[in-house]
Amino acid sequence: MNDSPYHRQSGVTAMNRRDFLFCSGGGLGGIALASLLGQESLLAATPTSGVLHAPAKAKRVVQLFMAGAASHVDMWDYKPLLEKKHGEKWDPGEAVELFQSSPGSTFASPWKFKPYGKSGKMLSDIVAPIGDVVDDIAFVHNIVGRSGVHSQATLLQSTGFLIPGYPSIGAWVSYGLGSLNDNLPTFVVLPDIRGLPSNGQKNWDSAFLPGQNQATQVRVNAPKPIADLSPPPADYITPSGETAGLELLGKLNRAHADSHPGDPRLEARIRSYELAAKMQLAAPDALDLSQESEKTQARYGIDNSTKVWPKEINVAEEQDAFGRKCLTARRLLERGVRFVQIWSGNDNGFPRRNWDSHEDIARDHAPLSLGMAKGTAALIQDLKDRGMFEDTLIIWTTEFGRMPCAQGGKGRDHNPFVFTNWLAGGGIKGGVSHGPSDEWGYKPADRSHFTQGYDIHATVLHLLGLDHEKLTFRHNGANRRLTDVHGHVIKEILA
Amino acid sequence: MSFESEVKPIFEKHCIECHGPKKQKSEFRLDDREVALHGGESHAPNILPGKPAESPLLKFVTTADRDTRMPPKGERLTAAEVDTLKRWIAEGAVWPESASLKKTDPLDWWSLKPLAKPALPSGDAAHPIDRFILAKLQEKHLQPSATADARTILRRLNFDLIGLPPTADELAAFEKEAAQDLPAAIGRAADRLLASPRYGERWGRHWLDVVHYGDTHGYDKDKLRLNAWPYRDYVIRAFNDDKPYTRFVEEQLAGDTLYPQTADGHIAQGFISAGPWDFIGHAELPETKLDGKIARALDRDDMVSNTTGAFLATTAQCARCHNHKFDPIKQEDYYRLQAVFAALDKADKTFDVDPDAAKRRAPLVAERTRLDGEIKTLNEKIATADTRRATLIGKIIDELKQGSAAVERLEYGYHSAISKEQSATKWVQVDLGVARELTEVSLTGCHDTYNNIGAGFGFPARYKVELSDDAKFAQGVTIIADFTGADVPNPGVKPQRFALAKLKGRYLRVTATKLALRKNDYILALAELQAVDPKGRNVALGANVTSLDSIEAGPRWGRLNLTDGYFYGPKSERDDARIALLERERTEIRKGSNKVAPADNARLAELNAARAKVAKELAALPAPQVAYVGTIHKGTGSFAGTGANGGKPRPIFILKRGDVSQPDKEVGPGTLPFTKELNSQFDLPADAPEGARRVALARWITDNRNPLTWRVIVNRLWHYHFGRGLSDTPNDFGRMGSLPTHPELLDWLAVDFRDGGQSLKKLHRLIVTSATYRQSSLGNPANEKIDTSNAFLWRMNRRKLEAEAVNDSVLSVAGKLDLTMGGPGFQDFVIDKPQHSPHYEYDQHDVEDPKSHRRSVYRFIVRSQPQPFLTVLDCADPSMSVASRNETVNALQALAMRNNRLTVAMAKHFAARVAKEATTPPAQIDLAFRLALGRPPSTSEAEAMSGYVREHGLTNLCRLIFNLNEFNFVD
Questions:
Q1: Pairing with B196, which of A320, B331, B489, B749 sits 20 to 30 Å away (CA)?
Q2: Which residues of B touch A448 (CB under 8 A)?
Q3: ipTM above 0.95 for this complex
């Protein structure tokens, strides 16, 4: 055991604040250059005035993204017809083209649905914990995708385009609104470290937007949650050397800047080191879940007692993994992080912690969904308890749904033709289900009126006080928007 | 009836918002007479003069149908307004020319005007660039800056031309020469740097930014693209060789057709394939499926946008869903460009550079294929009589003939019954029929793909291998291998080979004394046991197998799978020598069995002999090369390509709203109607080979009369030299791009370049020898008031070093930079889970690995998980064309420069280097500064640093130096 504080790894044991700074890591990243500098000449890359068009209903966002395509018909979108026709030949009355398979027989959800809340919303057993907060949620059941391929469909929901190279919604929000704090990043992503989604980091890219809008990845529960927050083990690095070094660096850089006047970048770079030092303090504190009571941790499904998880996918482990991210998200939002994105799933190893349940819905969806539901419900409740729910927007996303018919008896193939997203919090009317899917959950009930990811994006921006048609950035000849040339605010779900 | 006062106001009130200058929904607009009377997507013409009842326009404004009525939202037209429209149409829909928005000539735009060399502005400056720059400064009342000092100029030249800092010796020599004659010294330094191979590495990287080059496919799975690097090397080579620009363009678009007898002709088409590729959309979805169609349409879109962006600074891709909103590009023009690439896919291509070899290879391969067909037919006829061994040999031969295609069979191996105890002993044994002399025995572990368990499933923790003539292994037992004393690490699917000194025996037995963990229980599983005789034959193939127990489950698990010749793993390339050997053995077995007609066997032997001869001739040819390029692909399964059709281009249709499910008119190949002097439609004969389309496009681009090509490339060069192009949107010369600050200079340079040998090096030299280039980068308050952003170049721009320059400088200053050129990219990550979707783990890479100390242009570029250190420093995103790097300053960069494992490790090497060359602390501080910054520290700097070195050591100072602003900027 190496006793040097630089060799200790992240943990939540009793450690003093200073040690923690060196060991674990905390987050930082895009602090708006505007606030960093306050210099007009470097602000060319910030959006034009008039983007903030309306009083904002929400200040911050947490997005929950289920990668691999979570099944609407097994979670949120109750279809009695599937139960009635279970096992019979599935015939929607038209030719069906699926991603991987030919349609199997009609496949009822393996789980029971029950009504919850005042709204009486039917939810399946694997999202039962959401029942406690269901009256706060607006479901949109008629989302239609544009591709049944994971990569393109995921990009469409995360960036608004089918191909890589476009900024993510979090980067757009950061670009549009800037920072709410001065020691943490604007946009934080909590990936599922067991396996990144299709396209990996392209889903939280800042692409052509200025770099301060890039996401900072926080690998929750990893030994080093944030890259380069603290130095790696090295025999020559000591706390006093770090302090003195930063001071000397500042001094030398200052003298250099003084002899090279008129270049705000030199000043900005000096400030960036000061900011980095602040983040080194703030981030570990934000990520230290041990500061939360046992009761709170338990509420989120965090299990500090289990050190080694079973090899098979299981509910307790999924609750722990997702709950930690939800609680971390709350702590980050509290500290002024503007946009937190939580990812679940897309591990392609074994076991398959991936919503892409082609083989066996029951095996994979139950633990993933129960894990997700517990943390999500706790997050919503917790935000309400703290008075943050009113101005925090919570959005639940997946790249497409799954078919009402079986694949290989126990699984479901992709369904980009209709699926569910939901929203809750700032400016959202709770307890509503907007835009029904058809009786199978195969396509929208009204095929000429449906919702698209663009509409969700437009609605999110609207609630943040941003006009999705005006939040633009000129790149390679086009004024790019998150919503491309589409998008309508979904008025029906607004409070 | 007045259009102006009665009709137009109705359009303006109700329609123009969506069908006007801002939006043109359904490609229809009512502010443009032409479009209003004739255009519109599916209902054109919307206005039928004299026939109000039949005019769609009137139907839309009167219908009650919620989905089609106009306007869709808001107030409907009043009855009076409808009546006005009805009357107007009935009276002939008279729309006076004057009432339309003033039509402008779409070609009336700076970048589309014919290129001509302007006269030099008058002035005293000798250098043509300075004439233009000074004239503009004068016009704007700006003062040029003083010349920078010699050290600054050489650092500038170095980073600019080769991306590395100058050495102390180079600086000293330059300062001496500059004191005599600065312009001459600059000229000589420029020549030296341009002649250095480091130049191509630096400038090749710029081009790779523009073409979005990467070494993985991106999208889902993000699999490795192992043969992309030849294109990266081609680009570096082209810059170093100063390849004339026309040739550079031609090779990248149509090298396979124009220069098939050169390696570059093939490799350069890595340009077409440089961007991302949707593996799932191609490999798992055929072109007949909707999602498969989308994937291929997007892939062609990538080829088109790469081409028009890189060579023409044109955003043709904006016309995929609708006519370009700003530039004269119709949807049809865009799809004509798609038609140019319609036969191609992104794929590995194997090619002969030697024309003679290429000529000889084709008929030999055809002959081999023909012989294989005949052999197969004959074998199928007689195979029914084969022994198990002969059948298995046949299977191996078939797989070997498939070449390098990885073979995955269901037959995993042998699997014992499940035991609750890990210490239970289990055995499995092979009967070779008779006692045989053996030189080697090998065991290979299983690979369970079905359950995603992966390699080494069931391989015992402790085991032994024995040989005996006694089936019960009671007597005469020879131990071949004994690992019963301690656990062995699981070898995965790596064969465990045991050499034998010509031992003889009939039975081989593997006994596990400590089983492998399955879930909560234990098993013994093995994929294959091979026993090699002195002739090199696997005599265990097809042998009978017995065991203590076995689960015998379906095709996957069974005793006989242990001797079926199959185990998981990379299969060898097509191996004609081994095929011949196996064929001989099969013939022998068949002769012995007496069940095969002698005539058939004899004919087979004859065919096999002929095949062996062909194979030998093929083997004698020089080895073909492989590169990942845009090419005719001939594949199997979903990713079939057009190869089976002889490379016939796929039909290309105009897609309504870019939607593959709404094909409209079919279009042939063509290009953009950007100049009246050149035909934008390629009038190729119907039976022209597909390559002719790309040749036509390349010829159009490189035609002297193309107004864009020459302006675009000289502007790119200018952009990299000054940090800003003469037009500061190097990828967009259209109406959404920036106007050039010095249009005459841009045109002068473009013509000079086009007509003066198209040498990039000559242009570099011209630029860096100008007085404009050698100005100081210091500010000037008076000038700043007029031109804050220095658009008119009254000083040099201070440049923040790009990610690669920082990385390479750190290595260089630390004395660790390895200048080895070319070849496969170095991987500064460890790949986890390579079988399905690789995880690229940068954290697990050893930063001290010298392989990763090459210049960063040779890095293996992953799209989904970009290299963290360089990404934080704003390196190019390989998923999009980057014409101009983002340049940001943020706290993540500060943390990376201080705490990244690379800078922390290199600080140690830097310090060691300094300590070796200088002994006293003051001398060390002095040397460290000179190595990193090319200057000695000032007295006050030296003072401040000496205390720090005393207390915290030289290494900490070296780390600090990497973090200095001065290290990260070049003046």
A1: B749
A2: 67
A3: no
